[in-house]
Structure formats: C-alpha cells, structure tokens
Amino acid sequence: MTTRAICVAAILLFTFSVSTNARAQLTKQEREQAAEMFAGKLYLRVDAPCDYGRMVPMLEVSPTGTNTTRRISELTEGDKPNLYWDFGPNDPIQHTQLRWGINNVRVWAEGASGHRNEIMVDFVQIKTMDDFKKAFDLTFSATPLDEAQPEWPADIRTAIQERRLIEGMTKEQVSSVIGAPTATKVVEAAGGQVEIWYPRQENGARPMFKRASLRTGFPASLEFADGKLVKIEPSPAPSPGARKN
Q1: pLDDT of residue 209
Q2: Closest residue by Cα to residue 87 from 130, 137, 37, 47
Q3: Are residues 31 and 85 in contact, defined by beta-carbon separation less than 8 angstroms?
Q4: How many domains does the chain have?
Q5: Cβ-proximal residues to 84 (8 Å cutoff; 6+ apart), any chain
Q6: Phi-psi region for residue 182, left (φ > 0), alpha (ψ -120 to 50) or beta?
Q7: Which has more confidence, 10 or 189?
Q8: Is CB count within 10 Å lower at the N or C end of the chain?
Q9: What local confidence, expressed as pLDDT, does residue 108 receive?
Q10: Angle at 3 between CA 2 and CA 9, to 5 degrees
C-alpha cells in the first residue's frame, strides 16, 4: 500500500469514527427535552464540590453513579486550596445551562434562595436520552428532598428540611442532610455489627469566601445498626449551617 493510500485509509477511518460518535449524540429534540428538565428551581441530591480557582466541577455523574474521588485525587497542591464544598443535598439551584460535549454534558447553574455562588456538574458517558435521565435522577430533584418522599415519617421529613439528624433515620435519609461520608467502617458490637460513618468536617473554604466557615458543623461520627441511625457523636466544635455563605 502506498503512502497516499495509507493516508486516505486513515482519513476514512477518522471520518467513520467521528460519524459514529456523532450518531451517539442526543438529537436536537432530545437536547431540548433535556433542557426542559432543568426549567425552574431544582434541588441537589448529592454533594457538588468545585475547584473555584479554575471553575472546574469535581463531581462526575454517569448513568450508574456519582464520583468526586477521581478529580479531587488529581488536584495539584496549587489547586487544592480552591476546593470548596459549597453545594450539598437539598441546596436549590436555578438558571441552568447545558454545555454539550461528545459524550459529556456540563451542567452549570446558579445557587438559588440567596446562595451567591455558581455550581458545575459533569454528566459523563452520556450517549442516549436514557443515560441523561439516569444521571439527572441521581443528581437532582424537582422538589426539596423532604417533600420528594411523602411516605417518610413526618418527624424525619421535618428534620431533613431543617438540616438536622435524628436517631431512626436510614442511610438515605442521613445522606439527604450531610451528603456522603468521608469514610466508613464496620465493627462488631453487642447484638451484631455496627456501621460507622465519618462525615466531612471541613468544607475547604478558601479566603475568597470571606463569610464562609471552614467547619461543616456535621457530627464527628454516626453509628448505624440494622440500617438505622442509633448514635450521633457530636463534633468537638459544632457550627450548624456553616456550609452556607
């Protein structure tokens, strides 16, 4: 095969690859449907930290799950001071814009209800509208989390609304208040196994957020037995609501 033939074959292969990727994209109509899902105010289901120096989201959401570990682990020493856990479960967002990539979608929005900062989330591995809907449902709720589950007991829904933890909550209900723990472990105890969660203690606020506290105010640890919260160990330096500006 001549050099020219090799080049032509390479171009054809590249063109086929691009065409294949293009077919994997959502159609114009599907993108419009996706944008409509973000109309009005939405509420986060998960933590959405961001590198506010470079304005880069640390949260990746695929159709099968959420991940902050990968991008945070790749932060340089110079970028780490810019990491800020400013948005978490039940925080409202509005004025959302979608920026489409090949198989990724960047979700950009403003905080609502007096929240001044911007939020960014990357939906990844998005090849179909079904993929997009799954990522959306993992990340956002059309109503506050305390209203999204009317079957939950009234005292638990009130606690979630007030960002409080009470004994008897399930792990899902606890996550609706504090997000994901930084670490967990299982220990043997009288009567069976106990799972211990260690909530995040600092939000990583950098000096540019002058009115923000470094402390989250979350408990030092939480103990679960049979899937229910049975013990709350207070933080040595509680600061309720400190995540908010």
Answers
A1: 62
A2: 47
A3: no
A4: 2
A5: 49, 50, 52, 203, 204, 205, 206, 209, 212
A6: alpha
A7: 189
A8: N
A9: 96
A10: 90
